[in-house]
Amino acid sequence: MMRVLRFVCRSLYRVPLPGRVLIGVLLGLAVGFTFRQREMAFGWTTADFGVLAGQYVQLLTALATPLIFFAIIDAFVRTEISGRQGVRMIVICLGNVAVAFAIGLTILNYWHPGESWKQRFAEPAPQSVSQDAGAASAKAPKVPETKGSLSPLDLMKSYVPKSIAHPFLDNMVLTVAVLAIFIGLALRTLRSTEDAELVVAITTFDQFIIASFQIVLKLLLWLIELAPIAIFLAVANVIGASGWATFQMMGVFLLTVCAGLAIHSLIYYPLSIWVLTGRRPSQFFGQGGGAILTGLSLNSSLATAPLTLEALRRMGVSDSSARLSACVGTNFNNDGVTLYEAITALFVAQAIGLEMQIGEQLAILLAALVGSMGIAGIPNSGLIILALVLKAAKLPEQAIEIAIPLVYSVDFLVARLRSAVNVMGDLQVAILLDGPVKTEEPKTLNEAEA
């Protein structure tokens, strides 16, 4: 029996992660529909699976906060952005993010798709362990009372930490990101010092940041390998509680996310290129199609960088613009991840009936932006930072415990769409950096004779 079990485990491990996630989803569906909320064995039900899945999410969140902190400082350590091209790249990336935010806010505020999940959030939440006695209890998620829009001063006060450790303890992603940015800027400033001892100390600190980032990343990648098991538990719990209604709910969510990504990538990107540089959409999709499809299959825009560079070369984009976008800008230009995280957070907020004014919505969008910085090369990065963005939206813990299993069950599909959008963003930024297509001026008669 043990030999058979080892053989099955080894065989499953050889299957790529997306395949294992799909297997986890299918097994979760089977267990959920078979047992629903009945006892399976030893007093266990599918609700207990939800508790275990919640612990996985909690551990993922605990590691994601230091990942973002070290990733941003690591970007300052490794990346050299200077001069006019660097400023232009940052302006273009900010413009792309602004458009992505406008698309997300428009879809969520005019369509109100999150309201389709209200019935699910009105049901009892998955059982959770009490901190006092460890007794299981089923409670509906508490929806915070909305007292109108928070003032800008109140918003600022909510993100100012009480101590350096506070943002890490409470997973305050915005505050952690700002702290990392200031540390990175201070590090850049001190590099010009002539103090030999300080130069050695800064070099040592640089190595510490690089090593810390890689260590936290490795831990998270190990944790991601367990995602199929967590997704199996989460799907079994959700299906056991809601049954077929789950598919209708996820259909609305998928349609919302796909609509946002499609408008941004299939309309905004080619249109901006055509208007600002004169390159036709047919050239953008024709020459860049191979890189876009590779990003879709590999689920990593950074791993697709060689093909992105080759596609830009075929388009006639200069090497300097191509390298700046595909090798440096890809750390900041993650429109696919940013748009997905923001839509998901606002979607869940609508589901629990939490009315947010524009200032609070922009705070969520900003959290999604800083959460996506520096993680372009990490597979399933959207899955890693989703819990942090939901916490930054100040959503109730029980609402997050219900929403994340639902979203994770389809993340293996949405992740590929996000990566494809990120690759298209790298292509677009490089083309805009290069400027309008240069056409040869007609030669004069004397030049022609010469």
TrEMBL record:
<dbReference type="Pfam" id="PF00375">
    <property type="entry name" value="SDF"/>
</dbReference>
<keyword id="KW-1133">Transmembrane helix</keyword>
<feature type="transmembrane region" description="Helical">
    <location>
        <begin position="226"/>
        <end position="245"/>
    </location>
</feature>
<feature type="transmembrane region" description="Helical">
    <location>
        <begin position="55"/>
        <end position="77"/>
    </location>
</feature>
<comment type="similarity">
    <text>Belongs to the dicarboxylate/amino acid:cation symporter (DAACS) (TC 2.A.23) family.</text>
</comment>
<feature type="transmembrane region" description="Helical">
    <location>
        <begin position="252"/>
        <end position="271"/>
    </location>
</feature>
<protein>
    <submittedName>
        <fullName>Na+/H+-dicarboxylate symporter</fullName>
    </submittedName>
</protein>
<dbReference type="InterPro" id="IPR001991">
    <property type="entry name" value="Na-dicarboxylate_symporter"/>
</dbReference>
<feature type="transmembrane region" description="Helical">
    <location>
        <begin position="89"/>
        <end position="111"/>
    </location>
</feature>
<feature type="transmembrane region" description="Helical">
    <location>
        <begin position="198"/>
        <end position="220"/>
    </location>
</feature>
<dbReference type="GO" id="GO:0015184">
    <property type="term" value="F:L-cystine transmembrane transporter activity"/>
</dbReference>
<dbReference type="InterPro" id="IPR036458">
    <property type="entry name" value="Na:dicarbo_symporter_sf"/>
</dbReference>
<keyword id="KW-0472">Membrane</keyword>
<feature type="transmembrane region" description="Helical">
    <location>
        <begin position="164"/>
        <end position="186"/>
    </location>
</feature>
<keyword id="KW-0813">Transport</keyword>
<dbReference type="GO" id="GO:0005886">
    <property type="term" value="C:plasma membrane"/>
</dbReference>
<feature type="transmembrane region" description="Helical">
    <location>
        <begin position="12"/>
        <end position="35"/>
    </location>
</feature>
<feature type="transmembrane region" description="Helical">
    <location>
        <begin position="362"/>
        <end position="390"/>
    </location>
</feature>
<keyword id="KW-0812">Transmembrane</keyword>
<dbReference type="GO" id="GO:0015293">
    <property type="term" value="F:symporter activity"/>
</dbReference>
